[in-house]
From TrEMBL:
<keyword id="KW-0969">Cilium</keyword>
<dbReference type="GO" id="GO:0005886">
    <property type="term" value="C:plasma membrane"/>
</dbReference>
<feature type="domain" description="MotA/TolQ/ExbB proton channel">
    <location>
        <begin position="67"/>
        <end position="191"/>
    </location>
</feature>
<keyword id="KW-0813">Transport</keyword>
<keyword id="KW-0472">Membrane</keyword>
<keyword id="KW-0966">Cell projection</keyword>
<keyword id="KW-1003">Cell membrane</keyword>
<keyword id="KW-0812">Transmembrane</keyword>
<keyword id="KW-0653">Protein transport</keyword>
<keyword id="KW-1133">Transmembrane helix</keyword>
<feature type="transmembrane region" description="Helical">
    <location>
        <begin position="157"/>
        <end position="176"/>
    </location>
</feature>
<dbReference type="InterPro" id="IPR002898">
    <property type="entry name" value="MotA_ExbB_proton_chnl"/>
</dbReference>
<comment type="similarity">
    <text>Belongs to the exbB/tolQ family.</text>
</comment>
<dbReference type="Pfam" id="PF01618">
    <property type="entry name" value="MotA_ExbB"/>
</dbReference>
<protein>
    <submittedName>
        <fullName>Flagellar motor protein MotA</fullName>
    </submittedName>
</protein>
<feature type="transmembrane region" description="Helical">
    <location>
        <begin position="114"/>
        <end position="137"/>
    </location>
</feature>
<keyword id="KW-0282">Flagellum</keyword>
Amino acid sequence: MFSIIQAAGWPIWPLILCSIVALTLIIERLSSLRAARVAPAKLLEEVVSVTRAHLPAADVVNKLADNSILGNVLAQGLRVVIADPRITEEVLRNTFENAGRAAVHKMERFMNTLGTIASAAPLLGLLGTVIGMIEIFGSQAPSGGTNPAMLAHGISIALYNTAFGLIVAIPSLMFYRYFRGQIDAYTLEMEQASERMVPHLMRFSVKKPVPTNAG
């Protein structure tokens, strides 16, 4: 492996750095975007069941918020209903929307970095190819002869950097698309959960009295 790095020259080092960062981000996202940490399968049904007769206590809401990202979204809705019994449907929907935006932002953490690596790695490989071509042209002596060692080194730089750039870019792009699909699916699931919770929680809202005209 070290001999390959030596043959690829200094342009390989940015690609090695990109590969380390990409691998770290992929492992982190695989762990963070698991269904158990984002949207457990039966969480919504459990929340609806617990709140069917009355609103839960504050400690139960806090445990729900710590359960998962979806749990935190649902907990925000519960908190605002508990804090303001006269809450309107519009305010409750806005609360869920704001919590949903924060949840999507959390799920999209590091996604821009991974996408940047997927786009930049082939360009870094191309840079190595250009530097290798310069080495190849530099191996041509003014008298018409060729320096075999410099020629071989230039070819090695060009080929190794091109190959390594693709090796880094292709998995990064595949996982970027995969994670993006997961985030879209989770976002839709949270939107549907919020839509179901709005009428369910509005049952606990105290209706404002309608003013009547005296006389």
